[in-house]
Write a structure and sequence with these properties.
The protein is α+β, with helices and mostly antiparallel strands and 202 residues long. It has four helices and nine strands, in the order E-H-E-E-E-E-E-E-E-E-H-H-H. A hairpin with a 5-residue loop joins strand 5 and strand 6 (89-94). The protein binds zinc ion. Residues 95, 97-98, 100, 112-113, 115-116 line the site of zinc ion.
């Protein structure tokens, strides 16, 4: 019998990635469109998104659990922006459940962050003993950052209040180095397992 996974992995869920919307130039006030998820050439789901302003978007969709009447969902998700090092601004979403600032939300019955849905990334399951990845989380906690390397790159982390500049610079440098190693380990582990992260395609 296959061993049951402890937690669902993020690739099992439909992802709403704010950067993907920005890349497709959809983050325009007043824009209204369907966002679709496809698998093997078949549309598996879609939701309606209305960009009410650059700081709020409304999600409209229907969810259906087995044997129950469909439920209509219609709720706003807050968008926030942070400056990029190379100019311009980067958009983020605030999780409707916990308010965390994240790059991606995942669909349960509502869209929420991976903390709320208690998701593991496939790489964490693939390489549980990956020390580099463990150290990443320890270092991030020291830098008062709850988000992982996928959601929040090291260069965006702000210096925590009271932390000396030199200490901060050293930790960021250390973190970037370790995360590079963790990424390499992750790719190797995933290749061994034949796992491929599939993104959304339109
Ligand atoms: Zn959350």
């Amino acid at each position: 019998m296959a061993r049951q996974r402890e937690k669902d992995s993020t690739s099992d869920y439909r992802t709403l990635n704010i950067s993907a919307l920005k890349c497709k130039n959809l983050l325009r006030s007043g824009a209204s469109f369907q966002w679709e998820w496809w698998r093997r050439g078949e549309k598996v789901a879609s939701i309606g998104i209305a960009i009410e302003s650059l700081h709020s978007m409304r999600l409209r969709y229907q969810s259906r659990s087995r044997g129950r009447e469909p439920t209509q969902h219609d709720y706003p998700v807050t968008i926030t922006w942070t400056p990029c090092h190379l100019g311009g601004e980067r958009p983020w979403l605030l999780c409707p459940c916990c308010g965390r600032r994240v790059a991606k939300l995942y669909s349960g019955s509502v869209f929420a962050c991976r903390y709320c849905l208690r998701l593991n990334y496939p790489c964490q399951q693939a390489s549980k003993r990956d020390r580099a990845l463990d150290r990443t989380w320890t270092l991030r906690r020291k830098l008062s950052c709850d988000d992982g390397p996928f959601d929040y790159p090291a260069e965006y982390i702000q210096r925590p209040k009271g932390m000396h500049r030199k200490t901060f610079a050293r930790r960021i440098e250390q973190l970037s180095r370790i995360e590079e190693q963790a990424m390499t380990n992750m790719v190797t582990a995933m290749q061994k397992l034949g796992i491929r992260i599939t993104g959304i395609s339109l």
